[in-house]
Design brief:
This protein has 306 residues and is α+β, with helices and mostly antiparallel strands. It has one domain. It is 43% helix and 10% strand. It is built from 11 helices and 7 strands. Helix 7 packs across helix 11. It starts with a strand and ends in an 8-residue tail after the last strand.
Length: 306
C-alpha cells in the first residue's frame, strides 16, 4: 500500500504497519466532524449525543430557539427539524410477520453479514419455524423497546476495497463496514421501509432525491442528466452545471442532526438511539488481504452512519 509522507510515496508491506496505517486513516474519518458547530462542547451538551435532551425536544416543538451562537446556515438547518403534526408515529416494534418479511427481503444469504459470524441464511431459516420466529421477534424488538442496543452491535469490520482499479495508494481505498446482520436488518425495516416509505407517501422527499427510493436506481440520475444535456445541446441554451461530491460524506453526518430529522419524521427516540449508539462507540477491526486484524480502534464520539 502506498502512503504519502513529506510529498513522497512510501510503500508498506508489513501487515502490522499496514493495519496501523489504515486504522489511523479510518479513525480520522469518523472524527472529521469534531470541529463542526453541532459537535463542539457547548452545543454538544445542549443537544446530547442523539438529541435526547429536554432542550432538544423543546426546540423541535418550537418552544426554544436554536442557539444564537450558531452560524446562520446551521440555525436554518435546525429550524427544519421542527415537528409537523400531519406525520403519523411509526410503531416502535416489529410484528412477527414484519420480522419474517425483513429477512426474506435480504437475498444475499451467503454474504458474511456479521463480525460475530452469524449469516443471513441462519436468520432466514429461523423465520421458517413459528416458535423460533417468536423468539427472534422478541430478540429483535428488545433493543428498541429499551433504547439499549446489544453490545455486539458495536463491533464492526472495516473492509478495505479498491476505489480506483489497480491503485494501492491509501487515498484510493474505501472502507466498507461489515456490521451485525440483525442491526442492519432492523435499520432496513425502521429507516428504509417504514420512515422513508412513509416520507415518500407524504411527499416529504424532494423530487431530485433518488437514493433509497422504491422504483429508483442510481442510473436514473445519470440518465436524467444525459437527457438534460441532450436538450441543452439541441436548444443551444446557455447552461452552467456544478457537480459536487462531498468527500467521506457518510462519515460527516452528525448523529444528533440525524436523530432530530428521524424524530421529526416520527421515528421513536428509543429506535433512533438503538440504531445510532453502536456507531457512536464502535470498535473497528480491519480486513485486508492479510486477513482480519486482531487489533481495533475505537472512540467516544464517532459520528457518521458508517
Amino acid at each position: 500500500m502506498g502512503v504519502k509522507c513529506n510529498e513522497q510515496w512510501n510503500e508498506i508491506n508489513k501487515p502490522s504497519a499496514l493495519i496501523k496505517t489504515l486504522q489511523n486513516e479510518n479513525r480520522d474519518k469518523y472524527n472529521c466532524t469534531r470541529n463542526t458547530p453541532l459537535v463542539e462542547s457547548e452545543i454538544h451538551l445542549k443537544f446530547g449525543n442523539f438529541a435526547e435532551t429536554e432542550y432538544s425536544e423543546q426546540m423541535q416543538l418550537g418552544i426554544e430557539e436554536p442557539p444564537e451562537s450558531l452560524p446562520h446556515i446551521t440555525r436554518q438547518m435546525l429550524f427544519r427539524t421542527r415537528f409537523e403534526e400531519h406525520i403519523p408515529r411509526i410503531p416502535i416494534t416489529m410484528s412477527e410477520e414484519e420480522v419474517k418479511n425483513t429477512w426474506r427481503s435480504i437475498t444475499k444469504e451467503k454474504k458474511a453479514s456479521s463480525p460475530s459470524g452469524r449469516y443471513n441464511a441462519i436468520y432466514k431459516e429461523v423465520t421458517m419455524d413459528k416458535y423460533l420466529l417468536n423468539f427472534l421477534a422478541i430478540a429483535m424488538n428488545l433493543p428498541f423497546l429499551t433504547g439499549r442496543p446489544y453490545d455486539r452491535w458495536s463491533t464492526y469490520l472495516d473492509i478495505m476495497a479498491f476505489k480506483k482499479k489497480d491503485s494501492i495508494k491509501i487515498g484510493s481505498l474505501r472502507s466498507i463496514i461489515l456490521s451485525e446482520a440483525d442491526w442492519n436488518a432492523a435499520g432496513r425495516h425502521f429507516v428504509t421501509k417504514k420512515m422513508t416509505g412513509q416520507a415518500e407517501k407524504l411527499g416529504l422527499l424532494p423530487e431530485e432525491h433518488l437514493s433509497g427510493r422504491k422504483g429508483w436506481v442510481s442510473i436514473d440520475g445519470a440518465i436524467t442528466k444525459q437527457l438534460y444535456m441532450d436538450n441543452v445541446n439541441a436548444s443551444k441554451t446557455p447552461t452552467v452545471i456544478l457537480s459536487t461530491d462531498g468527500a467521506n460524506c457518510y462519515d460527516r453526518m452528525v448523529q444528533k442532526y440525524i436523530a432530530m430529522m428521524c424524530s421529526k419524521w416520527e421515528l421513536e427516540k428509543q429506535v433512533i438511539k438503538a440504531l445510532l449508539q453502536p456507531l457512536h462507540v464502535a470498535k473497528h477491526y480491519t480486513r485486508t488481504g492479510f486477513g482480519d486484524s486482531h487489533t481495533f480502534f475505537t472512540g467516544t464520539n464517532f459520528q457518521g452512519t458508517g
